[in-house]
Amino acid sequence: MTTQKSNNFDKYNPAKIYGSYIFNETLKYQKKYNFDIGQGKHATWNNEADAFKHTFMQAHLTLLFGENIAKILGDKHEKDGNLKMGQSKAEENMDLWNNQQGRQIAHEIIKEYGHIPSYSENLNDIIAKKVIQKMNNGELITTPTDSRNYHKTINYTREDIKEMTNKEFTKHEKAIMQQLKTQGIPKRKELSVGEKSEYSKNKFKSNSSSGQWVTINGNHVLLKK
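Below the sequence we write its predicted structure tokens.
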């Protein structure tokens, strides 16, 4: 493919167009909030601008197309970065962490507003403000040297917490808050295939010790001893 044809393709490539849009939004909000940014092609690379871009993008995609599509696109972007750009594991970890924070922001916005705000309601400003709040609270990873690990063992999911009794939540509250601060609280569907939280594993073991799991009409049922 000639350079001219390649440039013409990029001009109409939806991914390229959207990437440019998010980059320009990052530049716009950098001027407003004055977060750290690099120069030239490294403007949004391994810095606060990079963290903002990924978090903003995933919140934006989640609100527009839903969490599943947003995560698929975000994960694909990281895989492409690994294969085509030689991205380091630390850089991938940073991006995946911030992507998850962005999806959480989308859910916070929907919960607060009761709907997905429209552009006439300044949707991007709402997202950007949330991203900056997380950045200021230290909830985003702004450098690959950050020791927090996206792939670290997950102790709790949102569903685990929702299903807890008040007594169970009180017992686990300190650990839950620690995970929220250092890893975030994912949904079960955000875990890798076959992966379970430590809380779910332990609960299953506890239940299994008091009975036997059988399958009835396709449903798993615990028969108490």
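The two ends are 69 Å apart (CA to CA).
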